[in-house]
Amino acid sequence: MTTAKAPGKLYLAGEYAVTLSGQPSVVIAVDRFVTADVTRRTDDQLVVASDQLGEQNWPVSELPTLPLTDDWRLVIRTLQVLNDYLLDNGQPVTGLTVSIKSHLNADNGQKLGLGSSAAVVVALIKAVIDDYELPMTPEQRFKLAALITLTTPNFKAGSMGDIAAASLGGVVLYSKFDTEVITEWIDSNRYFSEIIARDWPLLRLERLGFPADWQLLVGWTGAPADTQQLLAQGATTVDKQHAKQLLAQNTAPLVNMLVEGLRRMDYDKVATALRLNQEQLFTYTSQVGLSYMTPQLLTLLSTASELGASAKISGAGGGDNGIAITNNPLVAKALTQAWLAAGIQPLPLSIATL
Ligand SMILES: Nc1ncnc2c1ncn2[C@@H]1O[C@H](COP(=O)(O)OP(=O)(O)OP(=O)(O)O)[C@@H](O)[C@H]1O
Ligand SMILES: C[C@@](O)(CCOP(=O)(O)O)CC(=O)O
């Protein structure tokens, strides 16, 4: 049996703008994971168990024609692509026993906003590729997972920063690839093994450091947010699309400032970049009419600011979570207590390096 795991993610900066190709963001892999176990079978059955979806059983020969309609579609599509990938690489394809377990939800099953779909795809890729002992770089893993996501019908078309974090781990400077070019390559029926060997225009995947003596705190509001609905609402008119372009224009220098701050371990620079990015996000989301701020997120930010920590809503807003960074352990302790007192649940997450 081969076991692989892929981490969840949190955005530090660049949300919404990062859905546009080439726009920078910083995304962090956190140490809660999806794990995938894979065992090769002697028959041609695919026996897949998921802690969330139950169990399914198909002959490998039926895999290419399975309908991609229900909640299984992402898992099925991943197995289809891996099957083709193994064949392209001259590997014998057999049945598999697969088990998927997600630790990215709260104990009561509620979603925490840590990107489970991306981690499921990446963990499955890693488990199968490792089981066949094939070489694959983290960047190629990202590309294969992105191709799977792009070719899963009716699946979310976000920035795929969650896939970047799940594939590389650590703190990642990420820009989305040129979607039109990659879609063109897919539509011209190129082999995925060939596509992942190419350079992808505009894609940026760079590992960044995070100062060891700073603390990253994560607060969960207890309210799940629907990222896809928020993304869809922000794209209904030409004016809203212009607003996103403007956000992107204003965000790029701030993400660069954040990256420079992290590289130089300059806390004030990082704090300023996060504050200015937060302001841009307030402006954008109010311009396009998104319910971005919630009472709990406001509490999360104001308690952090009162204690002198730099804080920001992480991800799409409307619920889920926010982050705070401090270089003072006493502030970290006080903020954790203040969040608890205000009904914000601190999540004991650290940066996951792979
Ligand atoms: N444990 C699991 N087993 C199988 N499939 C899963 C599992 N967890 C998630 N998925 C797949 O991911 C989909 C959920 O993706 P969705 O975008 O709603 O959540 P998410 O990626 O966790 O979002 P967020 O980034 O807000 O946390 C499910 O429909 C399913 O296809
Ligand atoms: C709003 C967005 O930029 C970030 C969404 O993050 P989250 O899934 O809400 O943590 C969407 C995306 O990048 O796909």
Q: Outline of this structure?
A:
With 354 residues, this protein is α+β, with helices and mostly antiparallel strands. Helix content is 41%, strand content 22%.
Strand content: 15-25%
Care to count the β-strands?
A: 11
Identify the overall geometry: globular
Q: Distance N terminus to C terminus?
A: 20 Å
Structural class: alpha+beta
Low-confidence stretches: none
CATH class of the largest domain: Alpha Beta
Number of domains: 2
Q: What's the Cα radius of gyration?
A: 20 Å
Query: What's the CATH topology label of the largest domain?
Result: Ribosomal Protein S5, domain 2
The major sheet is characterized as: 7 strands, mixed
| CATH architecture grouping of the largest domain | 2-Layer Sandwich
Spell out the helices and strands N to C. EEEEHEHHHEHHEEHHHHEEHE
Number of DSSP helical runs: 11
The average pLDDT value, as a whole number, equals 96
Oligomer: single chain
The small-molecule ligands in this entry are: adenosine-5'-triphosphate, (3R)-3-hydroxy-3-methyl-5-(phosphonooxy)pentanoic acid
How helical, in percent, are the residues?
40-55%
Give a structural overview.
- It contains 11 helices and 11 strands.
- The chain is of the alpha+beta class and 354 residues long.
- The chain folds into 2 domains: 2-208, Ribosomal Protein S5, domain 2, CATH 3.30.230.10; 215-347, Alpha-Beta Plaits.
- A hairpin with a 3-residue loop joins strand 3 (45-50) and strand 4.
- It binds adenosine-5'-triphosphate and (3R)-3-hydroxy-3-methyl-5-(phosphonooxy)pentanoic acid.
- The site of (3R)-3-hydroxy-3-methyl-5-(phosphonooxy)pentanoic acid has 16 residues, from helix 7.
- Residues 50-53, 71, 74-75, 100, 102, 111, 113-118, 120, 156, 162, 227 line the site of adenosine-5'-triphosphate.
- Residues 259-343 form the GHMP kinase C-terminal domain.
- Keywords: ATP-binding, Kinase, Nucleotide-binding, Transferase.
